[in-house]
Amino acid sequence: MDYWRPSTTVAAVVEREGRFLTVREETGEGLRLNQPAGHLDPGESLLQAVVREALEETAHHVEPVSFIGVYMSRYRAEATGFDVTYVRFAFACRLVLHEPARGLDKGIVEALWLTPAEIRARQAEHRSPLVLQTFEDCWSARSYPLEMIYTHPSCLYTRV
Q1: For residues 59 and 23, what is the distance between their CA atoms, to the nearest angstrom?
Q2: Domain CATH for 134
Q3: Most buried among 21, 58, 87, 147, using CB within 10 Å?
Q4: Would the pTM count as exceeding 0.90?
C-alpha cells in the first residue's frame, strides 16, 4: 500500500486601499502569481504559519483577522510525475508593518499590490486555481471567526 499525505499550506489575503498583496514567484512552470502562501512548518499553528509566510515572502508583518476557508486541489508535478494534494487554509489579514529593507524568500521575485480587476485579468499567471477562488471568496465577504481554528498545545513547540 502506498503512503499518501496531503501538503498543508496557508495563504494570506491582505488589503490596502483597495489593492491586494500578491507575490510573483519562480516555479517549475515559470513566473506565477500567488497570495503570500506556503507550507505549515513543524511546531507552528496555522495562524503562526500565515504570519511567517507573509513576512518571508513580502517583508510585510500581518495579523490574521478572520478565516476565509479551506481549499483542496491536486497538482501533478511534471518533473517527478507525482500527484501532490494541497489542503490550503486561507486567512484575511490586516497589514501591520512593512520592512522595505528585508529580503524576500528564495524564489520570490517581487511583492505587488493589485486591484481585483488586475488579479482577475492576470488569471493565466496564477499559481493555481485556488488563488482566484480564495480572492473571490474574500471579496464576497466570506469570513469566519479565527476561533474556528483550534491548535492543541501538543502541536506547538519553540523553535531553536
Answers
A1: 11
A2: 3.90.79.10
A3: 58
A4: yes
For all residues of the chain together, what is the average pLDDT?
Answer: 93
Residue 159 forms part of a structural domain: no
DSSP three-state, residue 27: strand
Which grid coordinates belong to 4? 499518501
Per run of 10 residues, the mean pLDDT along the chain (length 160 residues) is: 84 98 94 97 96 98 98 80 89 97 96 98 96 97 95 79
C-alpha to C-alpha distance for 10 and 67, rounded to whole angstroms: 11
Give me the number of domains the chain comprises. Answer: 1
Query: How many helices (H) and strands (E) are present in the chain, helices listed first?
Result: 3, 7
Apex 91 CA angle, 38 and 120, nearest 5: 80
Which residues does residue 95 pair with via DSSP β-bridges, in sequence order? 62
How many Cβ atoms from other residues are within 10 Å of residue 24's Cβ? 17
Question: The C-alpha cell of 150 is what?
Answer: 483550534
Spell out the residues 6+ positions from residue 87 whose beta carbon is closer than 8 angstroms to its own. 6, 7, 8, 9, 70, 71, 72
d(CA 120, CA 51): 25
